[in-house]
Amino acid sequence: MQNWILCDFHIHTTNSDGSLTLDEVVDLYGRGGFDAINISDHILDTASLESARNANKNPHAVLPERFSAYQEMLWRAAQRAWREYGMLVIPGAEITNNTAGYHILSIDIKSYIEPNQSVEDIVAEIHRQGGVAVAPHPHRTNEDGVAQLMHLWDNHERYVHHFDAWEVANRDDLFNVVGLKKFNYIADSDFHEPRHLYSWKTLLRCEKNTEAIKEAIRINSGVSIYLFREGKKLGTSITPPEI
Ligand code: ZN
Ligand code: ZN
Description:
The protein is α/β, with parallel strands linked by helices. It has a single domain (4-232), classed as Alpha-Beta Barrel (TIM Barrel). The protein has helices at 22-31, 46-54, 67-85, 119-128, 151-154, 156-159, 176-180, 210-219, and strands spanning 4-11, 36-39, 42-44, 88-97, 102-107, 132-135, 165-170, 173-174, 185-188, 200-205, 223-227. A hairpin with a 4-residue loop joins strand 4 and strand 5 (102-107).
């Protein structure tokens, strides 16, 4: 019987809107005993990039012209993570089209993917690059309980066979309808800051290498979700670990 490996496939760094640098993320997860993480900074649709530029705001995304430098940075971090922690760092991105209302999580991609395309074309491009395509936070609500980014869920019958998996849990939320519909699933933290370490994660029963991990998600066998907490008392606020 194979071991279970502890994974998180949805993680943001200061390369987009996360609060920790890539190195800080690697140290936090490495010390936390994780086996594999997928770094998934936002890449953003052109209209959203332009409106940020016009408003003189930081777009909080990896710009197209910076994407190969970003991937080189991920590659260097992966080498250090493996050496120091025996942890895999997989290069991904969250392909973010806020204008059309969908985010698409990619695991193990090789080059920039244009977020302005249709969902079908983005997923096809992820697959062409050998990656895994996941529908994240399928029906997230904001603090006022208003549903956001509903495009994928509103059209889930149309998209179900395109995606390799859906997030059945994202950070503290459980989307039990993903389970009820028997869709392929994973669970992620959608990490933006240290306290998000304590949240839903994925356990996979497979070898600790990227190809085995992708295959486990695709066939969705030996997949389990796991609420990662570290002995904190219920009802107390969670103190993030020192990094
Ligand atoms: Zn998202
Ligand atoms: Zn995200």
